[in-house]
Amino acid sequence: MNIDWTAVAAIPVLTLILFCVIYLWSRGVRRGKPLLPLQKSMILYACLFSFGMGYAIVFQIQLAALVRWQSAWIVAVILWGTALAFVAWHRHRRKGDVLRL
């Protein structure tokens, strides 16, 4: 069970690329105007989700060996998405706002 360190290092780079693409697309949709707080929070949560999902995919072999189930990485991605959704929901209920950047 060797770890592919290139893939481990690529996840933050790919997440940063995703952030740039989403940010530029959102600015294009807003025609250069500043992004709304909701758009900023959606960009942040999308990047966090892809970051966690990337690591779940990279470590899928180790995770499968740990729990002895080949599809454990899918459950890890679902749990990561659920945790992010819970954080977003909790921040929305507490502050009346999803996230201010």
Helix and strand topology:
Elements lengths: L4 H25 L7 H22 L1 H8 L4 H24 L6
Query: What's the mean pLDDT score?
Result: 90
- The chain-level structural class is mainly alpha
Which quaternary structure do these chains form? single chain
Order of helices and strands: HHHH
Overall radius of gyration? 16 Å
- For the termini, the CA-CA separation is 40 Å
Question: Major sheet, described briefly?
Answer: none
Estimate the helix proportion, in percent: over 70%
**Beta-strand percentage range:** under 5%
The low-pLDDT segments are: none
Give the strand tally.
Answer: 0
* Number of helical stretches of at least 4 residues: 4
**What number of structural domains do the residues give?**
1
Tell me, briefly, the overall form: flat
What does this structure look like?
The chain has one domain. It is 78% helix and 0% strand. The chain has 4 helices and no strands. The mean pLDDT is 90.
Keywords:
101 residues, 78% helix, flat, mainly alpha
In short:
Helix 2 (37-58) packs antiparallel against helix 4 (72-95).
